[in-house]
Amino acid sequence: MNSMTSRLQSQLDELFQHNTFLPDATPERFRRLLDQLSQQRYSRFAALYAECFQIFEGSSKLEPFFTCANNLILLPVTQRRLVINDPVFQIWMTLAFQHANAVLTDLADTPSALQSLLLELPAVLQRITQTAVEHKYSNHPPIRRFNVDPLIAAATPPNYEFPEDESTRKHLERSGYSIHFFRDVVSVALSRIANTWPACYEQFRHLVKLICHLPDGTFRSCSAARYTGVILLSAKDHSILDIEESLVHETTHQLLYSLVEVCPIIDEQHAGERLFTLPWSGLRSDLHGYVHAFFAALAQVKYLERVRQRPATEMQRAEERLLDLLKGLLKALPELEACDDFSPRGRTLMDNLAQEVHALRHRHADLLSRPSAATGSRSTLGMSV
Fold this sequence. Notes:
Blueprint: H1 3-16, H2 27-55, H3 63-73, H4 77-84, H5 87-104, H6 112-118, H7 121-134, E1 143-144, H8 150-155, H9 166-173, H10 179-196, H11 198-207, E2 210-213, E3 221-222, E4 230-233, H12 240-262, E5 276-277, E6 284-285, H13 287-304, H14 312-337, H15 344-363, H16 365-369
Helix pairs in contact: 2-5, 2-12, 5-6, 10-11, 10-12, 11-12, 12-13, 13-14, 14-15
């Protein structure tokens, strides 16, 4: 191990020490995570450039790609990161890496598919630039229905399949809220999040690049690592508070996608195919899904306990949700603590999260001890804890 690699490993070890990465952890650690993520993505792109130069050396056909890639590499760091961290660019780069590796390992008969993908880069960058021009960030990222980038539309199945024909789109647009109304609702929900937990809103601003409004979706909210930075919302929420929860939930998923991209937390060589039952839904999930659900539920509890000065019915709903989520966390904790499939840093993270759950159990002991029928009789949220 050379000195640079050793220093990086030491920095990652330090980053995980006494850190949950959640919004109430040290903000400086979150910024360091983002810096590491951006640097890692840039290094991957530089490696892709070098591999493709080796494959297509002397080919004039690839000149548009190499010129475009070279211009991107030479951009000032701040501008370059805006591009490299864009979901569209990330999806394109993942596909390009897959095709390049297929060529280098002789799994592909010809490099034609890779060549075609590389030549798409100028158009990809143009679409990213156009989106930035069209949407000046207010308090939310772009919110779209069907007019999403084709690379994103190709990445979302099986979570959601964007209809290709115009008649189906027009039919679906007649259901649910209009996109304009939904933007207003999301804006209100985000303003509430910013007032309730400013650090959570700050993470949202950095991690969520696009919201897709999909009322025909079979989910309440959805995201996946293969299209990091994009969240899908069906607007099946019953209140603004529910939408706040969905946004906090999905922001936390994005946080974990970023964290795992920088440093895997599960030891894939030892992790088996064991399925766990999620205490919040009863659904079966592998360890990756279990950790994501646990991480998101913990963030939601921390958000709900910060809810203040809302109407009585909303405060009661917040307390009921907090209790349900916290009970699920307490049920899941022994199972995750006993699991041996985490990497050393993953184990450190889970131990840090466990400490937070124990603190929540202590902080809300009175609420947890109440008989179920009496839970909603009088909200204790809003009182200092």
